């Protein structure tokens, strides 16, 4: 059975966001862990967590959780804090009743040790996740194929693919692969889908200088149709 959901930040305006999602007819909600502001130093803030959970549990949504943008499972120099952050995301997902924890695949490294670190971290999380699905998401900085390969390689029933249609569209334009063929190849591994809109005009600054890329405003990118909308 498919559930149609809306992405929310889940912070101070969570009640307003949840009421809106219900009003327009959504039965599912994806909570951005970044937006909740619940994680400090790789740990969930206990009293803030209780308050947030009380709010989420008042609503009968099917929840999923989007892992933090700062999570980097290839970061071997800061291994323990990265794993702690991943576990905090998993804990929140479990406690809110989430069915899927979304984890960005990010850009594939040319260093085999970095890729091994990513796989090992996902395997560790898989051991702890139980019936929570770990949805490895393609994003625009990488082709879709390496994400498919990763899910195949890990080969765990609770490690699946989160297919982001908008990210794949941007990636196909930049890396010059067949968008629809990539979608077809991914489908056997997909259990969770993100749908967002864009013009397929990749902003090269995303890979060239991410710090500068993040300083751009909507006025910088929307008129030109660049990036995610």
TrEMBL record:
<dbReference type="GO" id="GO:0016853">
    <property type="term" value="F:isomerase activity"/>
</dbReference>
<dbReference type="InterPro" id="IPR050312">
    <property type="entry name" value="IolE/XylAMocC-like"/>
</dbReference>
<protein>
    <submittedName>
        <fullName>Sugar phosphate isomerase/epimerase</fullName>
    </submittedName>
</protein>
<dbReference type="InterPro" id="IPR013022">
    <property type="entry name" value="Xyl_isomerase-like_TIM-brl"/>
</dbReference>
<keyword id="KW-0413">Isomerase</keyword>
<dbReference type="InterPro" id="IPR036237">
    <property type="entry name" value="Xyl_isomerase-like_sf"/>
</dbReference>
<feature type="domain" description="Xylose isomerase-like TIM barrel">
    <location>
        <begin position="18"/>
        <end position="203"/>
    </location>
</feature>
<dbReference type="Pfam" id="PF01261">
    <property type="entry name" value="AP_endonuc_2"/>
</dbReference>
